[in-house]
Amino acid sequence: MTTDHAWMARALQLARKGLYSTHPNPRVGCVIVADGELVGEGWHVRAGEPHAEVHALRQAGERARGATAYVTLEPCSHYGRTPPCAEALVKAGVGRVVAAMQDPNPQVAGNGLERLRSAGIEVASGVLEGEARELNAGFTKRMESGLPYVRAKLAMSLDGRTAMASGESQWITGPAARAEVQRLRARSSVVLTGADTVLMDAARLTVRGAELGLDAETTALALQRPPLRVLVDGRLRVPLDAPFFQAGPALVVTVVAGCEETYRRAGHEALVLGQERVDLTSLLRELAARGANEVLVEAGPRLVGAFASLGLIDEYQLFMAAKFLGSSARPLLELPLERMSEARELKIVDIRAVGDDWKILARPAN
Predict the structure, then answer these.
(1) Could you tell me the fold of the domain covering 3-135?
(2) 37, 41, 49, 53: which is the annotated catalytic residue?
(3) Which residues are annotated as a binding site for substrate?
(4) Known active-site residue 53
(5) pLDDT under 70 in the chain at which residues?
(6) What is the Cα Rg of the chain in Å?
(7) pTM score, two decimals?
(8) Which CATH superfamily does the domain covering 146-364 fall into?
(9) Model pLDDT, residue 332
(10) Which of 36, 152, 255, 349 measures 20 to 30 Å from 284, CA to CA?
Protein backbone atom coordinates (compact mmCIF):
# COMPACT_ATOMS: atom_id res chain seq x y z
CA MET A 1 0.00 0.00 0.00
CA THR A 2 1.41 3.40 -1.00
CA THR A 3 1.52 6.36 1.36
CA ASP A 4 -1.32 7.99 -0.58
CA HIS A 5 -3.44 4.87 -0.18
CA ALA A 6 -2.74 4.66 3.55
CA TRP A 7 -3.76 8.26 4.23
CA MET A 8 -6.81 7.96 1.97
CA ALA A 9 -7.84 4.85 3.89
CA ARG A 10 -7.81 6.97 7.05
CA ALA A 11 -9.90 9.65 5.30
CA LEU A 12 -12.45 6.98 4.30
CA GLN A 13 -12.52 5.71 7.87
CA LEU A 14 -13.43 9.23 8.99
CA ALA A 15 -16.04 9.59 6.23
CA ARG A 16 -17.81 6.46 7.47
CA LYS A 17 -18.50 8.21 10.78
CA GLY A 18 -21.13 10.19 8.86
CA LEU A 19 -22.89 7.05 7.60
CA TYR A 20 -26.10 7.82 9.51
CA SER A 21 -26.15 11.61 9.52
CA THR A 22 -25.06 13.42 6.33
CA HIS A 23 -28.23 12.98 4.22
CA PRO A 24 -28.77 14.48 1.69
CA ASN A 25 -25.06 15.23 1.48
CA PRO A 26 -22.36 12.64 0.76
CA ARG A 27 -20.18 11.15 3.50
CA VAL A 28 -16.77 12.81 3.28
CA GLY A 29 -13.56 12.58 5.29
CA CYS A 30 -10.36 14.63 5.03
CA VAL A 31 -6.82 14.17 6.34
CA ILE A 32 -4.04 16.78 6.16
CA VAL A 33 -0.45 15.55 6.25
CA ALA A 34 2.75 17.63 6.55
CA ASP A 35 6.18 15.97 6.27
CA GLY A 36 4.64 12.54 6.80
CA GLU A 37 2.82 13.64 9.96
CA LEU A 38 -0.92 13.94 10.49
CA VAL A 39 -1.65 17.59 11.33
CA GLY A 40 -5.42 17.77 10.82
CA GLU A 41 -8.42 15.59 10.10
CA GLY A 42 -12.18 15.90 9.96
CA TRP A 43 -15.42 14.51 8.60
CA HIS A 44 -18.73 15.96 7.47
CA VAL A 45 -21.31 15.45 10.21
CA ARG A 46 -24.56 16.77 8.80
CA ALA A 47 -25.98 19.02 6.07
CA GLY A 48 -25.56 22.74 6.69
CA GLU A 49 -22.52 22.24 8.91
CA PRO A 50 -18.83 22.60 7.88
CA HIS A 51 -17.49 20.13 5.36
CA ALA A 52 -14.70 17.69 6.15
CA GLU A 53 -11.99 19.90 4.66
CA VAL A 54 -12.93 22.84 6.88
CA HIS A 55 -12.76 20.72 10.05
CA ALA A 56 -9.35 19.37 9.01
CA LEU A 57 -7.98 22.81 8.09
CA ARG A 58 -9.08 24.26 11.42
CA GLN A 59 -7.24 21.50 13.23
CA ALA A 60 -4.11 21.90 11.10
CA GLY A 61 -3.92 25.68 11.40
CA GLU A 62 -0.72 27.13 9.92
CA ARG A 63 0.70 23.65 9.42
CA ALA A 64 -1.66 23.23 6.46
CA ARG A 65 0.58 25.51 4.38
CA GLY A 66 2.44 23.35 1.88
CA ALA A 67 0.83 20.17 3.24
CA THR A 68 -1.06 17.43 1.39
CA ALA A 69 -4.82 17.13 1.85
CA TYR A 70 -6.46 13.74 1.29
CA VAL A 71 -10.20 14.00 0.72
CA THR A 72 -12.65 11.24 -0.20
CA LEU A 73 -14.63 13.41 -2.65
CA GLU A 74 -13.53 16.23 -4.93
CA PRO A 75 -13.67 19.50 -2.94
CA CYS A 76 -16.75 21.50 -3.86
CA SER A 77 -16.32 24.64 -5.95
CA HIS A 78 -19.75 26.22 -5.54
CA TYR A 79 -21.52 28.19 -2.84
CA GLY A 80 -24.33 26.22 -1.20
CA ARG A 81 -25.30 26.11 2.46
CA THR A 82 -21.56 26.40 3.16
CA PRO A 83 -18.71 28.15 1.26
CA PRO A 84 -16.72 26.15 -1.34
CA CYS A 85 -14.04 23.88 0.10
CA ALA A 86 -11.74 24.34 -2.89
CA GLU A 87 -11.42 28.02 -1.95
CA ALA A 88 -10.70 27.11 1.68
CA LEU A 89 -7.86 24.81 0.58
CA VAL A 90 -6.42 27.51 -1.70
CA LYS A 91 -6.62 30.10 1.07
CA ALA A 92 -4.88 27.75 3.51
CA GLY A 93 -1.99 27.34 1.08
CA VAL A 94 -1.98 23.55 0.82
CA GLY A 95 0.59 22.26 -1.64
CA ARG A 96 -1.13 19.12 -2.87
CA VAL A 97 -4.66 17.67 -2.88
CA VAL A 98 -5.46 13.98 -3.42
CA ALA A 99 -9.12 13.13 -4.06
CA ALA A 100 -10.55 9.63 -4.05
CA MET A 101 -13.09 10.51 -6.75
CA GLN A 102 -14.48 13.38 -8.76
CA ASP A 103 -17.82 14.91 -7.87
CA PRO A 104 -20.44 12.67 -9.56
CA ASN A 105 -22.64 15.66 -10.38
CA PRO A 106 -22.00 16.11 -14.14
CA GLN A 107 -22.67 19.85 -13.86
CA VAL A 108 -19.78 20.45 -11.46
CA ALA A 109 -17.51 17.39 -11.92
CA GLY A 110 -13.87 18.43 -12.14
CA ASN A 111 -14.51 22.09 -11.31
CA GLY A 112 -13.11 21.85 -7.80
CA LEU A 113 -9.95 20.11 -8.96
CA GLU A 114 -9.54 22.63 -11.78
CA ARG A 115 -9.84 25.50 -9.29
CA LEU A 116 -7.04 23.95 -7.25
CA ARG A 117 -4.84 23.47 -10.33
CA SER A 118 -5.39 27.07 -11.40
CA ALA A 119 -4.07 28.15 -7.99
CA GLY A 120 -0.88 26.17 -8.56
CA ILE A 121 -1.82 23.26 -6.30
CA GLU A 122 -0.72 19.77 -7.36
CA VAL A 123 -3.78 17.54 -7.82
CA ALA A 124 -4.30 13.78 -7.99
CA SER A 125 -7.54 11.80 -8.21
CA GLY A 126 -8.70 8.19 -8.21
CA VAL A 127 -6.98 6.89 -5.05
CA LEU A 128 -9.24 4.19 -3.51
CA GLU A 129 -12.00 5.37 -5.83
CA GLY A 130 -13.89 2.08 -5.62
CA GLU A 131 -14.19 2.31 -1.85
CA ALA A 132 -15.23 5.96 -2.07
CA ARG A 133 -17.95 5.24 -4.63
CA GLU A 134 -19.21 2.32 -2.53
CA LEU A 135 -19.51 4.55 0.54
CA ASN A 136 -21.59 7.07 -1.39
CA ALA A 137 -23.36 4.74 -3.84
CA GLY A 138 -26.66 6.52 -3.27
CA PHE A 139 -25.38 10.07 -3.68
CA THR A 140 -23.40 9.01 -6.75
CA LYS A 141 -26.37 7.32 -8.40
CA ARG A 142 -28.67 10.26 -7.64
CA MET A 143 -26.22 12.72 -9.19
CA GLU A 144 -25.57 10.58 -12.26
CA SER A 145 -29.06 9.25 -13.02
CA GLY A 146 -31.66 11.18 -11.00
CA LEU A 147 -32.61 8.00 -9.13
CA PRO A 148 -31.72 6.85 -5.61
CA TYR A 149 -29.84 3.65 -4.78
CA VAL A 150 -32.47 1.05 -3.87
CA ARG A 151 -31.84 -1.76 -1.38
CA ALA A 152 -34.38 -4.50 -0.83
CA LYS A 153 -34.26 -6.15 2.60
CA LEU A 154 -35.70 -9.67 2.72
CA ALA A 155 -35.78 -12.17 5.59
CA MET A 156 -36.25 -15.77 4.56
CA SER A 157 -36.04 -19.36 5.70
CA LEU A 158 -33.69 -21.95 4.20
CA ASP A 159 -36.50 -22.95 1.84
CA GLY A 160 -36.86 -19.38 0.58
CA ARG A 161 -40.06 -18.49 2.42
CA THR A 162 -40.82 -15.14 4.03
CA ALA A 163 -44.04 -15.78 5.98
CA MET A 164 -46.51 -18.49 6.85
CA ALA A 165 -49.60 -18.87 4.66
CA SER A 166 -51.51 -16.80 7.24
CA GLY A 167 -49.05 -13.94 6.74
CA GLU A 168 -47.37 -14.46 10.13
CA SER A 169 -43.68 -13.53 9.80
CA GLN A 170 -42.43 -12.41 13.23
CA TRP A 171 -39.80 -13.44 13.71
CA ILE A 172 -37.96 -15.42 11.04
CA THR A 173 -34.50 -14.15 12.02
CA GLY A 174 -32.85 -13.52 15.37
CA PRO A 175 -31.91 -10.37 17.34
CA ALA A 176 -28.52 -9.84 15.64
CA ALA A 177 -30.10 -9.82 12.18
CA ARG A 178 -32.84 -7.48 13.36
CA ALA A 179 -30.19 -5.09 14.74
CA GLU A 180 -28.50 -5.17 11.33
CA VAL A 181 -31.82 -4.17 9.75
CA GLN A 182 -32.12 -1.28 12.21
CA ARG A 183 -28.73 -0.02 11.02
CA LEU A 184 -29.85 -0.37 7.40
CA ARG A 185 -32.88 1.77 8.19
CA ALA A 186 -30.79 4.36 10.02
CA ARG A 187 -28.37 4.86 7.11
CA SER A 188 -31.18 5.20 4.55
CA SER A 189 -32.82 8.41 3.37
CA VAL A 190 -36.12 6.57 2.95
CA VAL A 191 -37.65 3.39 4.35
CA LEU A 192 -40.38 2.25 1.96
CA THR A 193 -43.06 -0.34 2.60
CA GLY A 194 -46.45 -1.45 1.34
CA ALA A 195 -49.96 -1.76 2.70
CA ASP A 196 -49.72 -5.56 2.99
CA THR A 197 -46.77 -5.35 5.40
CA VAL A 198 -48.26 -2.57 7.51
CA LEU A 199 -51.62 -4.32 7.84
CA MET A 200 -50.24 -7.80 8.50
CA ASP A 201 -47.38 -6.92 10.87
CA ALA A 202 -48.67 -3.66 12.41
CA ALA A 203 -45.30 -2.39 11.17
CA ARG A 204 -44.01 1.05 12.13
CA LEU A 205 -40.72 0.95 10.19
CA THR A 206 -39.00 3.25 12.69
CA VAL A 207 -35.38 3.36 13.85
CA ARG A 208 -35.09 2.12 17.43
CA GLY A 209 -31.96 3.45 19.11
CA ALA A 210 -31.76 0.69 21.70
CA GLU A 211 -31.55 -1.94 18.94
CA LEU A 212 -28.93 -0.27 16.74
CA GLY A 213 -25.95 -1.72 18.58
CA LEU A 214 -23.93 1.48 18.04
CA ASP A 215 -21.99 3.68 20.44
CA ALA A 216 -23.86 6.51 22.17
CA GLU A 217 -22.50 9.29 19.92
CA THR A 218 -23.33 7.49 16.67
CA THR A 219 -26.75 6.45 17.98
CA ALA A 220 -27.55 10.07 18.84
CA LEU A 221 -26.55 11.19 15.34
CA ALA A 222 -28.69 8.48 13.75
CA LEU A 223 -31.75 9.37 15.80
CA GLN A 224 -31.41 13.08 14.95
CA ARG A 225 -31.95 12.25 11.27
CA PRO A 226 -34.63 9.58 11.00
CA PRO A 227 -35.41 8.34 7.49
CA LEU A 228 -38.57 9.40 5.71
CA ARG A 229 -41.11 6.58 5.99
CA VAL A 230 -42.98 5.99 2.74
CA LEU A 231 -46.09 3.84 2.43
CA VAL A 232 -47.16 2.61 -1.01
CA ASP A 233 -50.92 2.19 -0.57
CA GLY A 234 -52.63 2.33 -3.95
CA ARG A 235 -56.18 1.95 -2.60
CA LEU A 236 -55.66 3.60 0.82
CA ARG A 237 -56.31 0.43 2.77
CA VAL A 238 -54.28 1.40 5.85
CA PRO A 239 -56.39 3.42 8.34
CA LEU A 240 -54.99 6.60 9.83
CA ASP A 241 -55.15 5.13 13.33
CA ALA A 242 -52.74 2.31 12.37
CA PRO A 243 -49.48 2.09 14.38
CA PHE A 244 -47.56 3.11 11.25
CA PHE A 245 -49.20 6.54 11.24
CA GLN A 246 -49.11 6.90 15.02
CA ALA A 247 -45.31 6.51 14.93
CA GLY A 248 -44.76 9.88 13.21
CA PRO A 249 -45.10 11.76 9.92
CA ALA A 250 -45.14 9.67 6.76
CA LEU A 251 -45.53 10.01 3.00
CA VAL A 252 -48.38 7.98 1.51
CA VAL A 253 -48.22 7.21 -2.21
CA THR A 254 -51.49 6.25 -3.85
CA VAL A 255 -53.60 6.40 -7.02
CA VAL A 256 -56.64 7.81 -5.17
CA ALA A 257 -57.04 11.46 -6.12
CA GLY A 258 -58.32 14.09 -3.72
CA CYS A 259 -56.99 12.58 -0.50
CA GLU A 260 -54.18 15.04 0.11
CA GLU A 261 -55.99 17.29 2.59
CA THR A 262 -57.11 14.39 4.78
CA TYR A 263 -53.55 13.23 5.27
CA ARG A 264 -52.21 16.76 5.68
CA ARG A 265 -54.62 17.39 8.55
CA ALA A 266 -53.40 14.18 10.20
CA GLY A 267 -49.77 15.32 9.97
CA HIS A 268 -48.80 13.29 6.91
CA GLU A 269 -48.38 13.88 3.18
CA ALA A 270 -50.19 12.13 0.33
CA LEU A 271 -48.76 11.90 -3.17
CA VAL A 272 -50.86 10.70 -6.11
CA LEU A 273 -48.75 8.88 -8.70
CA GLY A 274 -50.17 6.67 -11.43
CA GLN A 275 -53.56 5.51 -12.64
CA GLU A 276 -54.35 1.84 -11.94
CA ARG A 277 -51.29 1.27 -9.76
CA VAL A 278 -48.60 3.42 -8.19
CA ASP A 279 -45.90 4.39 -10.70
CA LEU A 280 -42.80 3.14 -8.87
CA THR A 281 -40.27 4.67 -11.27
CA SER A 282 -41.89 8.10 -10.91
CA LEU A 283 -41.92 7.61 -7.15
CA LEU A 284 -38.17 7.00 -7.08
CA ARG A 285 -37.56 10.07 -9.23
CA GLU A 286 -39.68 12.13 -6.85
CA LEU A 287 -37.76 10.83 -3.84
CA ALA A 288 -34.44 11.62 -5.55
CA ALA A 289 -35.70 15.14 -6.31
CA ARG A 290 -36.30 15.50 -2.56
CA GLY A 291 -32.68 14.56 -1.87
CA ALA A 292 -33.06 10.83 -1.16
CA ASN A 293 -29.78 9.00 -1.76
CA GLU A 294 -30.61 5.55 -0.41
CA VAL A 295 -34.03 3.88 -0.31
CA LEU A 296 -34.56 0.76 1.77
CA VAL A 297 -37.51 -1.34 0.59
CA GLU A 298 -38.95 -3.41 3.43
CA ALA A 299 -42.09 -4.87 1.98
CA GLY A 300 -43.93 -8.06 1.12
CA PRO A 301 -43.36 -10.29 -1.91
CA ARG A 302 -45.82 -8.36 -4.08
CA LEU A 303 -44.22 -4.91 -3.78
CA VAL A 304 -40.63 -6.17 -3.77
CA GLY A 305 -41.49 -8.27 -6.81
CA ALA A 306 -42.88 -5.19 -8.57
CA PHE A 307 -39.65 -3.27 -7.94
CA ALA A 308 -37.60 -6.27 -9.11
CA SER A 309 -39.62 -6.80 -12.29
CA LEU A 310 -39.00 -3.17 -13.25
CA GLY A 311 -35.26 -3.52 -12.64
CA LEU A 312 -35.33 -0.88 -9.91
CA ILE A 313 -33.42 -2.76 -7.20
CA ASP A 314 -29.68 -2.11 -6.97
CA GLU A 315 -28.94 -4.37 -4.03
CA TYR A 316 -30.55 -7.22 -2.14
CA GLN A 317 -29.90 -7.66 1.58
CA LEU A 318 -31.06 -11.21 2.24
CA PHE A 319 -31.22 -12.49 5.81
CA MET A 320 -31.51 -16.27 5.95
CA ALA A 321 -32.56 -18.21 9.04
CA ALA A 322 -31.76 -21.89 9.62
CA LYS A 323 -35.36 -23.05 9.58
CA PHE A 324 -37.94 -24.40 7.14
CA LEU A 325 -41.36 -22.74 6.86
CA GLY A 326 -42.78 -25.39 4.55
CA SER A 327 -44.33 -25.52 1.11
CA SER A 328 -47.51 -23.67 2.11
CA ALA A 329 -45.57 -20.60 3.28
CA ARG A 330 -45.26 -17.46 1.18
CA PRO A 331 -42.47 -17.05 -1.40
CA LEU A 332 -39.61 -14.55 -1.26
CA LEU A 333 -41.11 -12.33 -3.95
CA GLU A 334 -43.81 -12.42 -6.58
CA LEU A 335 -41.92 -12.58 -9.85
CA PRO A 336 -43.81 -14.84 -12.27
CA LEU A 337 -41.18 -16.34 -14.57
CA GLU A 338 -41.78 -19.39 -16.78
CA ARG A 339 -38.49 -20.18 -18.52
CA MET A 340 -34.95 -20.56 -17.22
CA SER A 341 -33.86 -17.93 -19.74
CA GLU A 342 -35.97 -15.41 -17.80
CA ALA A 343 -34.16 -16.06 -14.51
CA ARG A 344 -32.77 -12.94 -12.84
CA GLU A 345 -29.06 -13.41 -12.24
CA LEU A 346 -27.45 -11.88 -9.19
CA LYS A 347 -23.82 -11.50 -8.18
CA ILE A 348 -23.16 -12.42 -4.56
CA VAL A 349 -20.90 -9.72 -3.14
CA ASP A 350 -20.71 -10.86 0.47
CA ILE A 351 -21.92 -13.64 2.76
CA ARG A 352 -21.45 -13.51 6.50
CA ALA A 353 -22.88 -14.86 9.72
CA VAL A 354 -25.09 -12.49 11.71
CA GLY A 355 -25.75 -14.15 15.03
CA ASP A 356 -27.41 -17.48 14.23
CA ASP A 357 -28.48 -16.30 10.77
CA TRP A 358 -26.72 -15.55 7.50
CA LYS A 359 -26.67 -12.30 5.55
CA ILE A 360 -26.24 -12.41 1.79
CA LEU A 361 -25.49 -9.20 -0.10
CA ALA A 362 -26.27 -9.59 -3.79
CA ARG A 363 -26.58 -7.24 -6.75
CA PRO A 364 -28.00 -7.68 -10.26
CA ALA A 365 -25.36 -9.30 -12.45
CA ASN A 366 -25.96 -6.89 -15.33
Answers:
(1) Cytidine Deaminase; domain 2 (3.40.140)
(2) 53
(3) 185, 205, 208, 298
(4) yes
(5) 1, 80-82, 165, 167-170
(6) 22
(7) 0.92
(8) Dihydrofolate Reductase, subunit A (3.40.430.10)
(9) 76
(10) 349
